[in-house]
Amino acid sequence: MKTNRRTFLGGVSTVAVLSASGASFAQGAKKYSDGATDTEIKIGHTNPYSGPASAYGVIGKTLQAYWKYVNEQGGINGRKIDFITLDDGYSPPKTVELVRQLVEQDKVLCLFNTLGTPTNTAIHKYMNAKKVPQLYVATGASKWGKPKEFPWTMGFQPDYHTEAVIYAKHMLANVKDAKIGVLMQNDDYGKDYWEGLRDGLGKEVGRVVKHVTYEVTDPTVDSQVIQLKDSGANVFFNISTPKFAAQAMRKAGDIGWKPAQYLNNVSVSVATVMKPAGFDNVQGVITAAYLMDPTDSQWDGNDDMKAWKAWMTKHNSGASLSDGSNVFAYAVAHLMHETLKRCGNELTRENLMKQAASFKKFKLPMLLPGITISTSPTDFYPIQAVQLQRFKGESWELFGDVMHAESS
Asked: For the CA atoms of the chain, what is the radius of gyration?
């Protein structure tokens, strides 16, 4: 992406798959914070269109397509969305610089779905000091669900700690004499998963025989994977972003290491991870899911999936239908859309957070059956359930029951 900034002006009234609840809004005096007017709502966003996490750039592009589509429909309650998305390259100092620009110069109403644990951590205190909503961040770190300390920040996806606890329990129950090797990105994102694994193992934490890390600036993780194989590990917990996740699973295959593999949910895209890793190398890999996977044929007749594919074909035609990141972006954009719609004519930052914290078992498009959105003033974890899935052939296959998070 050559430019550092992309802006779309436009609007949306309703989307067919959105709930009718909250569609009507209070008449009377209009109230606005910075970033909102009678005709416009200004939203800020950062994403790694370049750099080591650029595989996530598709999320930003799909969000752009969504808000453009919304604008073509007429806007939210008659207001067009000005979506300003900037490339931070997954670099926290760059994120700080760009977010200051969005808040202080562009004067956005809020940030939406800013991507990355280290990058969001870098702006966490700033956003709360400024009292600007940092909504539905694209990271599952458990810190985004602490309304008492950080009332202006809310997560979206299930938290990493809980996800890792689930993997730990599955390892202990299903792998005989488990000897666990861990590859971890050396930052807050990786550490959240690592702590969850240790907590989930409990008194069995000694089963971790090797724990290696990498930096996002590293060219490869080949040497780390060799160390894990040499440790005698028969379980591989892969805590890495797409580029490194694919590298690690391919390298394991190349050196003939065949452990039971567990992959963090943030790297489950068939298009950007599993296929580049080599389908032969990823058979049986286990992960946790909360969204329908577009490669899973069981959803072919599902109304949500059919609507998503039709929308993608018409409004985001250059994007891959096998990349789960496009499902993620579509789903979280619908949640933001509904939140803004519920604000009615009171487009203040306070009311935006109030509406975000008022969902009750809301059915969001593309969530797995049995998983809904619920929030409250004391609960900033919108999604608190997952289901395990296993890679088979060239797609993911769900198994077991929907499991609810510890925080629920």
From this structure: 21
Residue 281 pLDDT greater than 90, yes or no: yes
pLDDT-based confidence at residue 332 (cuts at 50, 70, 90)? very high
CB atoms within 10 A of CB 361: 8
DSSP H helices, 264-323, are 275-277, 303-315
3-state helix vs strand vs coil in the chain, percent to 5: 40, 20, 40
Dist CA 377 CA 354 (whole Å): 7
Going by the DSSP 8-state scheme, the letter that residue 344 receives in this structure is: T
The residue count of the chain comes to: 408
CA distance 172 to 392: 22
Same domain? 189 vs 276: yes
In a domain, 153, yes or no: yes
Residue 405 pLDDT: 65
Residue 285: predicted pLDDT: 98
Decide if 9 contacts 71 (C-beta within 8 A).
yes
Note the maximum CA span of the chain. 69
Tracing tokens 């969000």 back to the chain, one arrives at: 63
User: Which residues, including other chains, have CB under 8 Å from residue 24's CB and lie 6 or more apart?
Assistant: 344
Look-up of token digits 């799909």: 62
Question: Which residues constitute the domain of residue 261?
Answer: 160-289
What three-state secondary structure class fits 382? coil
| Claim to verify: residue 11 and residue 151 sit in the same structural domain | yes
- Indicate whether 261 and 169 sit together in one domain: yes
What are the tokens at 301?
Answer: 């007749």
Do 124 and 45 reside in the same domain of the chain?
yes
- What integer best gives the mean pLDDT of the chain? 92
Residue 334: how many CA atoms within 13 Å on its side-chain side? 22
SS3 58: helix
What is the distance, to the nearest Å, from the Cα of residue 322 to the centroid of all Cα atoms in its chain? 16
DSSP letter at 270 equals I
